[in-house]
Amino acid sequence: MLPFFPAFLAGMNLVVLAADAFSFLVAWEFMSLASWALVMAHHKEPGNLEAGYVYIVMASAGTLALLLAFGLLAGPEGGYAFDAIRAHKISPLRAASFLVLPCSARARRLDSCRSMSSCRSPIGGTKPCLGADERA
């Protein structure tokens, strides 16, 4: 576990230091992979293999969402530098869509899990879904 911790810290610092969308995404992926390595460092413990699988799938989905968001924020000019994105004026409707769309996708996923009596595990088998009282 210890060899991956400095890599994770370096990835977090690179994310903060990024000046454009491309360097941000490269640093984000580096940080995600270092974090995944921290999760998988004790892969022989029960549940860590499944946790690592779920983590890498969710990190990939998050990266795709960031890629889409940067594409929308860059606008038709295609300026991916953060200064250009900040200078680009967006309509209030478009700004609201950046907040509403991810939240609605998350809500739909939770509703689909609540409607099932058990959730399918990515490694195989089933496990009980968390009820509303167990999530809080």
Low-confidence stretches: 110-122, 129-136
In DSSP terms (H or I, runs of 4 or more residues), the helix count works out at 6
- The spatial strand order of the largest sheet comes to 1-2
Please tell me the total number of domains: 2
Class computed from helices, strands and strand pairing: mainly alpha
Which architecture of the largest domain per CATH? Orthogonal Bundle
CATH-defined topology of the largest domain = Helix Hairpins
Mean pLDDT: 76
Estimate what percentage of residues fall within beta strands: under 5%
Task: Report how far the terminal alpha carbons are from each other.
Answer: 30 Å
Q: Sum up the overall morphology in one term.
A: elongated
Sheet with the most strands, sense and barrel status: 2 strands, antiparallel
Helix content: 55-70%
Number of strands: 2
Question: Can you put this structure into words, describing what you see?
Answer:
This protein is elongated. The chain has two domains: 89 residues, Helix Hairpins, CATH 1.10.287; 46 residues, no CATH class. The protein is built from six helices and two strands; from the N terminus they run H-H-H-H-H-E-E-H. The longest helix is centred in the middle third of the chain and has 27 residues. Strands 1-2 form a two-stranded antiparallel ribbon. The relative contact order is 0.10. The chain has 136 residues and is mainly α.
